[in-house]
Amino acid sequence: MLPDAMFFGRRKEIVDLAASSRLPLVAHQREFADSGGLMTYGPNVADVHRRAATYVDKILKGAKPGDLPIEQPTKFELVINLKTAKTFSGSCQATFF
């Protein structure tokens, strides 16, 4: 799964479709794993929000937004749904392209 607001909003339907097709779902945000997807790997959203707050603080103190550096996420998280993983145990074949 790629990051997209439409996909995120319909994550339960997407997870259910993947499960009914016996496809392991790997996405970018932990909510997909919480909804039953196999695993997620992506930036820690809480950390991204905390870092954004420092930008707001600097702007409110008079910094020009154009003078602030662009930052990349620095904390990432891997979430594996063990309940979903057990449903694939022994019955999933890996395919690599």
Description:
The chain has 97 residues and is an alpha+beta fold. It contains five helices and three strands; from the N terminus they run ααβαβαβα. It has helices spanning 5-9, 11-20, 30-34, 45-60, 82-88; strands at residues 26-27, 39-43, 76-80. A three-stranded mixed sheet has the order 1-2-3. The model has no long low-confidence stretch (mean pLDDT 87).
What percentage of amino acids are in beta strands?
A: 5-15%
Give the proportion of residues in helices.
40-55%
Number of helices: 5
**Helix/strand class:** alpha+beta
Please write the string of helix (H) and strand (E) elements: HHEHEHEH
Distance between the termini: 16 Å
Work out the number of β strands.
Answer: 3
Strand adjacency order, main sheet: 1-2-3
User: Radius of gyration in whole Å, from Cα?
Assistant: 18 Å
Quickly describe the structure:
The chain has helices spanning 5-9, 11-20, 30-34, 45-60, 82-88, and strands at residues 26-27, 39-43, 76-80. The chain has 97 residues and is α+β, with helices and mostly antiparallel strands. Helix 3 (30-34) links the parallel strand 1 (26-27) and strand 2 (39-43).
Which helices and strands appear, and what pairs or packs with what?
Elements: H1 5-9, H2 11-20, E1 26-27, H3 30-34, E2 39-43, H4 45-60, E3 76-80, H5 82-88
Parallel strand pairs: 1-2
Antiparallel strand pairs: 2-3
